[in-house]
Specification:
single chain, mainly beta, Immunoglobulin-like, seven-stranded mixed sheet, 68 strands, 49% strand
Length: 856
């Protein structure tokens, strides 16, 4: 043979661990050659190279995409592609979401179907999260089916696309060596028209004992083409009247009510068609005259029939409602809260609510004299007392630091019957700067109140009297004294920029300047009934709020066109809101803003923020109402999900279709009453989001928003129930670093993130005036004012003595908890909020006072 040319080729195997571009040198160690006469030939040997041009393709195990009909069963197929070679065994865990496994996995028609001694087992302990284990004495290669799993598709999933994930997996080859394979999810597209989930909801309302209220009975958005309804309502001790048409009924539609004791049977015949959502009819109900304040009268549906316009029966469910009695205020004396300063006069006012046969009072009040004293020469009869009313005051020393103020007021006639308003005012003069310090405070406690009627007959009304207060703060706003017809404050405050928002018991929303405390609305925005609950949510120049009767409203924010105008108010929650409900408001990827809020019947509602119209509502697992306000958890903005507590579980809710997403529901040891927080963090495995949820067993749960797995210790055991909101502080990169936790036993804990380790910053907080234990049942916040590195925790709490509940705002330095303050406020305080603009922490009180404290 003569060259040039190839003498021979030899196959070589490249190591599996080789990387692209890696070079292997091949050398000739022996080179012997002869010619055709069998004589030796001298040759020169040169080495060669083998260069790796790429790495082997990684095999993929995937959930095959399928399309199935709603309400049917189907085979879910798990496939192996052509790069899966020499597979000897597998363990695959699936998350089917709302689907369920109805049988065991099989090998029929797959790559292992003809491989002898192959075993397959299925764990269906949780049918929505089955686990399949495959073990073989032989081996198989793709492409083809690895296994099939029979699944059931609920009828209510019609029109949806469900993602099926492989949540964990392990693979081995025929030599029992671990194989590195990629797993991929698949989708189940469900065809068919989803069945209507028609819900008739009984509303919730409140009214005075002996009064008559209108209870709305509503249909949800799934109620279409309704031709007739018959509903029997059990009203208990309430007295029903004749039902009247709601907004869904026209003048030609007929409605009749058959009334028997404790029951109303309402029949509605619709001439054309009624389409929800909206109020079908209103049922008048009279509350017993002897009802006590706060007494609840349940209203339930005992029988329900519904037909469409063709006379075909329709399946429908119902949710109950209630009527709450509110005893009218009669001869209730209260004092205002004054902001005090050294050597400065501040007015304190006395008010009566619901004056009946009142012609005068003898009022005795005690307070801490270290803050100053009252100037008795300034006392005056004001407001509804009348110009001819006589009044005098005395301020004397009591025991220890206590001083005693006594005001005697007598009128020749009774105060206007049934009216409410101020009847007296007197100036308090603050002590000198050596005695009166910032954040000093005292309650003005009525210890004896005697009323005199027109016949000079005296009555002791001390038990009805409500305290006021003196606070060396930034400013104080007394809603019930400063605004006409304002009610007690029933929501916590919310702050954006320099604006403070809160709501009252009469369903009105107010706005204040955070720097001065002056009103920003000409009058309270009337949301249409019920008390404002939770706390308002501010988003895109609008304020959103929820009322106790189930209304959700949007109000133009201060500083915008039409400030204080109610842009819409809708009866979105006909069965009433979930406890302490507040709206979550967020913009989606398409730029549309939505409002999310839970109701008392175990559903979550999604409203269009522009119009208030309901876009969607969905039942929560086991119809369990939310126990916290939904928290927006941003994934990759603008994508987001919602996190909320529901009894002893944490829910992750898809903001698009309101379905509950993996990894939830996540079980907790106690009821999740503390609003959930979701923050970005960095862990040893990379970026994640941490979910923080306190519960009433005293545990703070720390979980991955991605997997639901514990982060760090996973759970921190605090020293008492956690029902107030925790707060997360962040580092300079915006990543969570500590969680601050209030407990009802008066302790505050600090937990490091992501380790989950922590300890109590302080235990056993007490009221400064008498050492009474404080229950921390509201949110805490952490504030470092501009230019300062010191962080202070602000923790409102309550002290209950007899029928009176008053508040203490505990303030402590994180670095040195011996530096602390205890600001006393009358009534039960709400959650605090911080205004960087005004550099103040603002807290509202149930008595109607809004207090601003300078940040430390």
């Amino acid at each position: 043979a003569n060259g040039p040319g190839t003498v021979f080729t030899i196959p070589v195997q490249i190591p599996a661990s080789a990387t692209a571009g890696q070079t292997f040198t091949v050398t000739l160690t022996v080179t012997d050659a002869i010619n055709s006469q069998n004589q030796a030939i001298q040759l020169t040997a040169q080495p060669g190279t083998v260069t790796v041009s790429g790495v082997p393709a990684v095999g993929v195990v995937k959930v095959q995409d399928i399309t199935v009909a709603a309400g049917s069963t189907a085979n879910l197929v798990i496939t192996a592609d052509g790069n899966v070679k020499n597979l000897g065994g597998a363990r695959v865990a699936l998350d089917l979401g709302p689907l369920t496994a109805t049988g065991d996995a099989t090998l029929t028609g797959g790559i292992f179907a003809n491989v002898a001694n192959t075993q397959i087992a299925t764990d269906r302990t949780d049918p929505s999260k089955p686990q399949v284990i495959l073990v073989s004495a032989g081996a198989a290669s793709g492409p083809g089916t690895l296994f099939s799993l029979p699944i059931s598709v609920p009828a209510d999933q019609a029109g949806k696309t469900i993602t099926v994930n492989i949540t964990s997996s392990e693979f081995i080859d025929a030599q029992n060596q671990t194989m590195n394979l990629t797993v991929a999810p698949g989708t189940v597209t469900v065809t068919g028209v989803p069945p209507a989930n028609i819900v008739l909801s009984v509303g919730s309302t409140e009214g005075p004992a002996g009064g008559t209220v209108q209870l709305p009975i509503s249909l949800n958005d799934q109620a279409k083409n309704i031709g007739g309804v018959r509903v029997t309502l059990n009203v208990g001790a309430l007295t029903p009247g004749q039902a009247t048409r709601g907004e869904l009924l026209a003048a030609e539609d007929q409605i009749g009510t058959n009334i028997t004791p404790g029951q109303a049977d309402v029949i509605v015949v619709i001439a054309h068609a009624a389409n929800g959502p909206g109020v079908l009819f209103n049922l008048p109900l009279t509350i017993p005259a002897n009802a006590t304040d706060g007494q609840v009268f349940p209203v339930t549906v005992t029988h329900l029939e519904m037909i469409d316009t063709a006379g075909n029966p329709l399946a429908a469910t119902s949710t109950p409602g209630q009527v709450v009695a509110r005893a009218p205020l009669v001869n209730v004396i209260s004092l205002s809260v004054a902001n005090v300063a050294p050597n400065t006069a501040s007015p304190v006012r006395v008010r009566v609510d619901g004056a009946q046969s009142m012609a005068g009072i003898d009022l005795t009040v005690t307070y801490d004299g270290r803050l100053g004293k009252f100037d008795t020469t300034t006392v005056a009869a004001t407001g509804i007392a009348g110009a001819d009313t006589q009044i005098r005051a005395d301020d004397t020393a009591g025991t220890g630091n206590t001083r005693i103020l006594r005001i005697i007021e007598i009128s020749p006639h009774t105060f206007p019957e049934g009216q409410s308003g101020t009847i007296a005012t007197i100036n308090f003069v603050g002590a000198g700067p050596d005695s009166l310090h910032p954040l000093d405070s005292t309650l003005l406690v009525p210890t004896a109140v005697t009323m005199v009627d027109a016949n000079n007959v005296e009555s002791d009304i001390t038990a009805k009297a409500r305290p006021g207060g003196l606070i060396a703060g930034a400013w104080v706003f007394n809603a019930r004294f400063d605004l006409p017809n304002a009610g007690n404050i029933t929501s916590s405050v919310s702050i954006v920029g320099n604006q403070v928002y809160f709501g009252d018991a009469l369903g009105r929303l107010y706005a204040l300047d955070a720097t001065t405390g002056q009103p920003l609305f000409a009058q309270g925005a009337d949301l249409g009934g019920g008390a404002v609950i939770g706390r308002p949510t501010i988003k895109n120049d609008a304020v959103y709020a929820v009322t106790s009767t189930g209304r959700v409203a949007k109000v133009a924010a201060a500083g915008t066109t039409g400030a204080g105008t109610v842009l819409w108010s809708v009866a979105a929650l006909p069965g009433g809101p979930a406890d302490d409900a507040a709206p979550a408001v967020q913009e989606d990827a398409n730029g549309t803003t939505y409002v999310f809020v839970g109701d008392a019947g175990g559903r979550i509602h999604k409203l269009n923020a522009q119009t208030g119209a309901e876009v969607l509502s969905a039942a929560l697992p086991n119809n369990q109402p939310l126990t916290t306000t939904p928290a927006v958890g941003l994934m990759a903005p603008p994508l987001f999900d919602l996190w909320a507590g529901a009894a002893k579980s944490i829910l992750r809710i898809n903001a698009d279709d309101l379905t509950v997403r993996s990894p939830s529901p996540i079980a907790t040891q106690g009821n999740v009453l503390s609003p959930i927080l979701v923050y970005p963090i960095l862990t040893a495995t990379g970026a994640d989001r941490i979910v923080v949820a306190g519960d009433d067993s005293g545990h703070v749960n720390l979980l991955s928003a991605t997997t639901g797995a514990p982060i760090g210790a996973g759970s921190y055991a605090a020293s008492g129930p956690v029902i107030g909101a925790t707060v997360v502080s962040v580092d300079s990169n915006g990543l969570a670093n500590f969680v601050y936790v209030p407990c009802t036993d008066g302790s505050i804990h600090r937990i490091a993130i992501p380790s989950g380790t922590g300890s109590a910053l302080v235990t056993g907080l007490t009221r400064p005036s008498d050492g009474a234990p404080i229950s921390l049942d509201q949110a805490v916040i952490v504030v470092a004012k501009p230019g300062s590195t010191d962080e202070f925790v602000y923790a409102p709490g309550s002290v209950t003595s007899g029928s009176q509940t008053n508040g203490v705002i505990s303030i402590l330095n994180v670095a040195n908890t011996a530096t602390r303050f205890g600001v006393q406020v009358p009534g039960k305080p709400g959650a605090p909020a911080y205004s960087p603009n005004g550099n103040v922490v603002v807290v509202g009180s149930s008595t109607g006072a809004v207090v601003a404290l300078p940040a430390q």
